[in-house]
Structures are given as structure tokens and as C-alpha cells.
Amino acid sequence: MAIISISPFSAFILILTVIPFSEAGLSPHYYHQTCPQAEDIIFQTVRNASIYDPKVPARLLRMFFHDCFIRGCDASLLLDSTPANKAEKDGPPNISVRSFYVIEEAKAKIEKACPHTVSCADVLAIAARDVVAMSKGPWWPVLKGRKDGRVSKANETINLPSPFSNATTLIQSFAKRGLDVKDLVTLSGGHTLGFSHCSSFSARIHNSIDPTINSEFAMSLKKKCPLKNKDRNAGEFLDSTSSRFDNDYYKRITMGKGVFGSDQALYGDSRTKGIVDSYAKDEKLFFKEFAASMVKLGNVGVIEDGEIRVKCNVVN
Questions:
Q1: The pLDDT value given to residue 15
Q2: Which parts form a coiled-coil structure per UniProt (predicted)?
Q3: How high is the pLDDT of residue 19?
Q4: CB atoms near residue 46 (< 10 Å)
Q5: What's the longest Cα–Cα distance across the chain?
Q6: Which of 10, 271, 244 is nearest to 136 (CA)?
Q7: What does the radius of gyration of the chain's CA atoms come to, in whole angstroms?
Q8: In the predicted model, what is the mean pLDDT of the chain?
Q9: How far is 42 from 311, CA to CA, in rounded Å?
Q10: Residue 62's closest CA among 140, 199, 163?
């Protein structure tokens, strides 16, 4: 195991791990012969979009999580609803998912370079890695070769983890996807780039204040999110360095400053508390484990009988 800087992404941290090939035939070298420029196209597209809109990194990372947690990493979240079917992107938890245009733009450029070769699922997986790396987080070799799914149902989004969940519910949700307790705590660290609207945490700070929240922090949240809040854009960043991928998220949880009840719950349960402490103390450890858990998440529900969509928002 080594951590080094690499070029051309000199600020990125490369996590060198032994990446086993997936049972579904995934490989870090999947497109080396058929579309060697794919990752460069995705990186350039994501970087340009992030320069134009600093919210893009957090949005694309969240998009990847929300896609993988429903039918596996099959890009079903990217499909548009039709008159006959309400798709995942229109399910209640996904209404706030944004920046689909970035994936669509990257895919369109790849189609010109390598028609009918690279799946939308792989584009999203690579983009999620790139936004972490561009935000000063770890870099890892993305396993590729996913196929795109043809089914997307809004009613299945009820299975996404909730910001109101307790530790037991979260552990059970992750376990159903083959992810363990460490993966839960590690992947929750993706919230280091996140922002939440008031509706996702207001119940913790009004009426009966959640006893697990730092009292001064609760007061600051109340000022931003009053009981009769009329500002739909009001909310709070999930850590104090919202544009940088780091371990500040865990440090804040140890101080009772987790924004979501589900975040703070990780510090109130003996099964997860020790992992939170270890990441709050050791950022390099967090980076190493995050890279490994992202590879593991990327293997969830990989399908072999899907398709390579020409456009990510519609089936072929």
C-alpha cells in the first residue's frame, strides 16, 4: 500500500490497492483497446463543468450513490420518465439530484469518439471518482465493463437511505447491498462535499431539540432554517470545508455537529463510533478505505444482460 502524487493530476492522491476483477467481468483496463480516450473525455467534461458550477462535484458523487443503491450501478437513475412509467429520477428522494447534463455531455462526446462502446453506468462511475480526486480526495482505478439497465421505477427509491435513519436501519440497508459496517461509515464520508436543505434536518432543531446535536450548532441551524422558513434554498453544508474532500465531516460528528440525524447516529452506536473516531484522527486512512469502498460499491448489482445506451436518458 502506498500513497503518492501523480501527474497530470499533481494535487490528487493515488490509492494503490490490489483491485480484484469482478465476477461480472469488470476490469480497470476494459476500454484500453476499444476506447482508450474515454477517461480523458470524462475528466475534461467533469472538470469544465465543475469550474462553471462548483456544486457539480457533490451532485455527481450523490448521483452515483443514488444510482447504485436501487438496482445496482446500472445508470437506471439517468433514465427519463415516460407516460407509461415514472422513473427513479422523479422519485421523492431524487427530486433534488442535479447535473445530469454533465453525464449526458460526456456520453455524447464519447459516442462521437467510440460509438456504442462505453456504458452510461461506466461514465457515471468514472465521473464519481474524478470529482473526488478533483476535490483533493483519493484517486483509484475504476473497474469498468458495466452494462446499462432498461428498468427504472420511482417507487423503488423508497429504499434509499434516509437522513432520518438510525444506525441499525443504515447497517441493514447497506448489508442488503453487500456492504458492511465499515463501508457504511466510510461511504458516509462522501457527505464531506454535501449540502442539505432545511427540510432534511429541521425536525432535529425545532420543538424538541435532538439531544445528540451540539447546542450551539443547533442554534446556528435555527437561524439559517427558522420554523416558518420561506427560503427554499436555505440549508447547511455537511462539513466546514464543503469544496474539499477531507475528513472534516468525521471531526464534526465527534463534536455533535453532524447535520443529518443519520450522520450523528454513526457516533452514537458502538458498532460505528470507533470507525468515525479513526477517520477523524487519520485522513490518510479514510482516503484509503474510501477508495476501497467505492470500488466495492461500484460492483453492486452489476448486470451482464443490459445494453450500451446511445443516450443516457433513454433506452435504445
A1: 54
A2: none
A3: 43
A4: 27
A5: 60
A6: 244
A7: 19
A8: 92
A9: 15
A10: 163
CATH class, range 2-161: mainly alpha
Please indicate whether residue 66 is annotated as part of the active site. Answer: yes
Where along the chain do the CATH 1.10.420.10 domains lie? 167-291
**Is residue 298 very low, low, confident or very high in pLDDT (cuts 50, 70, 90)?**
very high
Peptide bond into 8 cis (omega under 30): yes
Closest among 20, 52, 43, 69 to 190, alpha carbons compared: 69
The distance in angstroms from the start CA to the end CA of the chain is: 42
Q: Give the C-alpha separation, 27 to 226, whole Å.
A: 49
Is 192 marked as a binding-site residue?
yes
Ligand-binding annotation for 254, yes or no, is: no
In the chain, residues under CATH classification 1.10.520.10 are 2-161
22 appears as a binding residue in the annotation: no
161 labeled binding residue: yes
The CATH number for 167-291, chosen from 1.10.357.10, 3.30.365.10, 2.40.30.60, 1.10.420.10, is 1.10.420.10
pTM to 2 decimal places: 0.92
Give which of 156, 242, 162, 157 is closest to 203, Cα–Cα. Answer: 162
Residue 270 annotated as binding site: no
In the set 66, 116, 197, 206, the catalytic residue is 66
**What pLDDT does 228 receive?**
86
